[in-house]
Amino acid sequence: MSAPGSNKRYFRRLSGYYAWFCVCFAGFLLALTVLEKEGMPRLWIGHLFMFATIVLYATIGVVSRTSNVTEYYVAGRRVPALFNGMATAADWISAASFISLAGGLYLYGFDALAYIMGWTGGYCLVALLIAPYLRKFGQYTIPDYLAARYGGGAGGRGGPVRALAVGATIIVSFIYVVAQIYAVGLIASRFTGVDFSVGIFLGLASILVCSFLGGMRGITWTQVAQYIIILVAFLIPTMWLSAKHADNPLPQVAYGSVLPKLAQREAQLAADPREEAVRAQFRRQAEDYGARLAALPGSWEGGRLEAQRRLDTARLRNASLGEVRNAERALAAYPKTVDDADALWRAQRARLLARAQPPEAHAAPFPGATEAESNARRNNFLALVFCLMFGTAALPHILMRSYTTPSVHAARGSVFWTLFFILLIYLSIPALAVLAKYDIYTSLVGSDFRSLPTWISYWANVDKINPLISVTDINGDGLVQLAEIAIDGDVLVLATPEIGGLPYVISGLVAAGGLAAALSTADGLLLAISNALSHDVYYKIVDPGASTQKRVTISKLLLLAVAFIAAYAASQKPADILSLVGAAFSLAASTLFAPLVLGVFWKRANHAGAIAGMIAGFLTCLYYMLRTNPILGGRMDAAWFDIAPMSAGIFGVPAGIAAVVLVSLLTAPPSRASNGLVDYIRAPE
Questions:
Q1: What is the b/e burial string over 489-524, where b = at least 16 CB atoms within 10 angstroms of the residue's CB?
Q2: Of 181, 336, 362, 346, which is closest to residue 255 (Cα–Cα)?
Q3: Helix, strand, coil fractions of the chain, as percent rounded to 5
Q4: CA Rg, the chain, in Å?
Q5: Fewer C-beta within 10 Å: the chain N or C terminus?
Q6: How many angstroms separate the CA atoms of 174 and 135, rounded?
Q7: How many CB atoms within 10 Å of residue 155?
Q8: For residue range 296-326, what is the model confidence (pLDDT) as tens digits?
Q9: How far is residue 314's CA from residue 326's CA, in Å, rounded to a whole number?
Q10: How far apart (Å, rounded) are the C-alpha atoms in residues 333 and 326?
């Protein structure tokens, strides 16, 4: 452990570095603002933001490069609590928080508060139940702790427990990192003009520079800089909208005055006859899909023949190339089998029925047409809060940060600072959702289609196959109705500066913030995966005699391989960001929470119980996801208590805890060494 005097000097030196960074960052923003006023093209500003931030992260990565094992895995265990809190907050404020959470609140209102409550409450569990004890244990990874605590296997080294923990770490982190890389592609494609898939691999380069060269050391100092960018990028447009609509620049205080005005506007739109005409058209389209579903398999065969007939007709009458191509695309997109048609038409029918509903009151808790529907929404809200809390307390890439502080006391302080820095953002997210919603409901709704704002066409063209926003004149009256607007939640925050009428420089800043959020989390996740493979599999199981240089080299090579696999998976757009993140949290909670926490607070938990708990929790969670998630071939008709698939951890966590307790009681008690380790990590420092 470092001496107190050297720790203070180190803290002062770091504070000086980041103070200079803040000054330079402010100067950069000011310079770009001046250049925009002088006529610099928007595309150049977007390129400059992307280029400058990636160069910054690359520079920190190069300066922090290391081959020292302790520096690479845990940043030398000398990161001050304040800076570790900033780095952990950046690690935590992922693309889901920065990009998708405000969009989720915009789309789902009160229901989406489950994310804020669950993620914030989860950090309280980390502070109380896990972080200090992991720091007292003082190794490198989460499988390290579980293997030492439970033992078993050849030589009592905990090989089976370690292998299962590594598997859980890889699966959870991989799902989570795919969501981050998807967000990187979204931002890069919007602000550089490149294709979405190309944007993913451009962002991947900046992820790799930090984590590949410097490991945890490089990631930590990059994440501190990234948090500063995230904070500034999120607060500026939110404060602007707050001043615009509430005459108060403090959004956390001011947005309460906008909520009643939003509720009044929602009531007007719900009763507007033009809105009802659009909704009726969506209902008719949904009924058409219902009729097709009822007539399967004949309707599928008839539709396929009709699509083929249209293509043949277009070719025979020498139609234009565009018309022939459209007919070819329609035939290619037509469901290949009856089962495909059933799944696709059900999804389209559900989407149309959702758009046919009047707007729900943003602040109404668990609205529903019937008491049963309202109860189902309440149950899903509570289940999601539960999964996110327990998942937070079991996420390997977050728990790894407990190892980087100089002491147990610093680890506790680090969690406090993490919560503080997270809340600066999280208390602003509900405000941004309300302010942006009110702006769209009052400025865009009711406007003329001939004078749509330019930001709509910008975002509509990012992904032409699945547009992030579409505004279509369904009833042909030339005016925009709310029901005619389809907006993807992932686009709201990135488009907020343009929605609010801010200079394009702020749009670039928000993109840089979203990129920082995605990259910071992706860095931590990739390092968690590569460390689990190199340290826990290669060094602890395959080659215990490997040199420190070889261990670090293996970790870097594995990180590179995992990064490219994750980038490929993200390029396939498997699901929206929040759904992927929710699945990762449920799996983490189901698999790792029980052995982690019971390992600290229940001495009787043993090797067999830990194995049973991880397997039972994981399989229960996975089974429920496969059973209910349409993307994985399941159906919500098969749900238990109407719980959504992303909240599968509500069943996996109890199954894991019950298996640990039951199997531990039915088998031999743990060794004296295991009990001694529990006494050691629970003793005050």
A1: bbbbbbbbbbbbebebbbbbbbbbbbbbbbbbbbbb
A2: 362
A3: 80, 0, 20
A4: 26
A5: N
A6: 25
A7: 8
A8: 888 888 888 888 888 888 888 877 777 878 8
A9: 10
A10: 10
What sign has the CA pseudo-torsion 334, 338, 340, 342? Answer: positive
Which DSSP string do the residues of 507-534 spell out, in sequence order? HHHHHHHHHHHHHHHHHHHHHHHHHIII
CA distances from 425 to 22, 120, 522 (A): 18, 11, 19
Positions of the chain with pLDDT under 70? 1-5, 153-156, 190-193, 206-207, 209-214, 462-465, 575-576, 685
Contact criterion met (CB below 8 Å) for 139 and 133: no
What pLDDT, in 10s, does the model give residues 447-462? 888 888 888 887 777 6
Question: Cα–Cα distance between 174 and 442 in angstroms, integer?
Answer: 41
Cβ(96)–Cβ(179) below 8 Å: yes
Q: Is the peptide bond before 251 cis (omega within 30 degrees of 0)?
A: no
Tokens of 315: 């070719």
Give the DSSP per-residue string, 53-95. HHHHHHHHHHHT----HHHHHHGGG---HHHHHHHHHHHHS-H
Of 585, 659, 604, the residue nearest 168 (C-alpha): 585
Tokens of 76: 């030398």
pLDDT at 192: 66
Q: Measured between alpha carbons, how far is 382 from 647 in angstroms, rounded to an integer?
A: 9
End-to-end CA distance of the chain: 12
The residue among 667, 530, 442, 508 whose CA lies nearest residue 214 is 530
Query: Could you give the count of Cα atoms lying within 13 Å of 321 in the half-sphere of its Cβ?
Result: 0
**Is residue 256 within 8 Å of residue 46, measured between CB atoms?**
no
φ, ψ for residue 503 (rounded to 5)?
A: -60, 155
Side chain identity at residue 646, one-letter code: M
